[in-house]
Amino acid sequence: MSAAIGIDIGGTKVAGGVVDENGEIRFRARRDTPHRSKRPQVVEDTIVDVVEELREQAPDAVAVGIGAAGFVDADRATVVFAPHLSWRHEPLRDALSERIDLPIVVDNDANAAAWAEWRFGAAQGESHVMMVNLGTGIGGAIVMDGTVIRGRYGIAGEFGHMQVVPEGQRCECGNRGCWEQYASGNALVREARAMILANSPVATDLAARVDGRAEDLTGPIVTEAARDGDPTATELLAEIGHWLGIGIANLAAAFDPGTFVIGGGVSAAGELLLGPARETFRRRLTGRGYRPEARIVAARLGNEAGLIGAADLARAAA
Ligand SMILES: [Zn+2]
Fold first, then answer.
1. What is the pTM of this model?
2. Do 200 and 272 have their domain in common?
3. CA 132, chain centre distance (Å)
4. Residues 142 and 53 in one domain
5. Element (H, E) at 53
């Protein structure tokens, strides 16, 4: 059994694990990165630390895979742009290769997560997979015929910035009406907070959960309220699901996958989100009634998917 090391670089932490050929994590290690120190050097040192700790546990590890939230170039060496790490054209693989004597690949975290769900999770056995991650924004990835489709420059899968509403909500990317303004965790929280701030009588349950402080409301609180049967929270999630279905219908028109895997924090809402998404998807799908419909399923590997996928991609490359 050849093990590989997977590393997940987040905004405030570096998480790593030794992953075996079945996608099981055998050992874990984790370091927080100082909040203001997002300089490449600090994060690099932290990655080297974590890798060294894991290699003591698993001297047989054959490769290191790194999943980073950001644009990673198509040769999987350079982080072109990472908004949460203030990295710009960071030659991460070469920098790490000077300090770690194993083959290293760097990939986008959504690519890594989709790969893991295809190999070991919700999309096993499916030849055409698309993953949509609903977090603060929307990330995504495409795995077709056992290959991650990265695009010419490595930036494919940024579905969150497809325009779905002409002149709609302003997006931080500079455009208006982007999909992630309607179907992400941020969208859910924005809408729920707006109802509390408007003193809406239907938002009393949600307001009570945060003592009336709209700014304290989070996505998980909305999901919990919906699970407890609050109709407003249920409706807010259904609305996110509706917008999810619209975007997925667009993706199906372009890519025709067999399975959509929905991951990210909001996917914890399960059927409260996916039920409405499937309903809208069926109503919006081009050629509906005359074509097979893609499955829409929840991701199975949770927030360790990126780490597992990064390790497995590195093992495959080595
Ligand atoms: Zn945008």
1. 0.94
2. yes
3. 7
4. no
5. helix 40-57
Give residue-wise pLDDT tens across range 23-53: 999 999 999 987 665 678 888 999 999 999 9
pLDDT digits (tens, 9 = 90+) for 229-267: 999 999 999 999 999 999 999 999 999 999 999 999 999
Same domain, 133 and 281: yes
**Ligand 1: distance of its center to the CA of 172 in Å?**
6
- Give yes or no: residues 94 and 147 share one domain: no
The CA distance from 13 to 23, in Å, is: 22
Neighbours of ion ligand 1 (CB under 5 A): 161, 171, 173, 175, 178
How many domains are there within the chain? 2
Collapsed DSSP state (helix, strand, coil) of residue 140? strand
Distance 140 CA to ligand 1 centre (A): 14
CATH number, residue 105: 3.30.420.40
With beta carbons less than 8 A apart as the criterion, state whether 217 and 193 touch: yes
DSSP line for 270-298: THHHHHHHHHHHHHH-TTTTSSPPPEEEE
pLDDT digits (tens, 9 = 90+) for 182-239: 999 999 999 999 999 999 999 999 999 999 999 999 999 999 999 999 999 999 999 9
What is the domain range of residue 151?
124-299
Contact between 239 and 264 (Cβ < 8 Å): no
Q: How far is the CA of 138 from the centre of ligand 1 (A)?
A: 10
**Does 53 lie in the same domain as 173?**
no
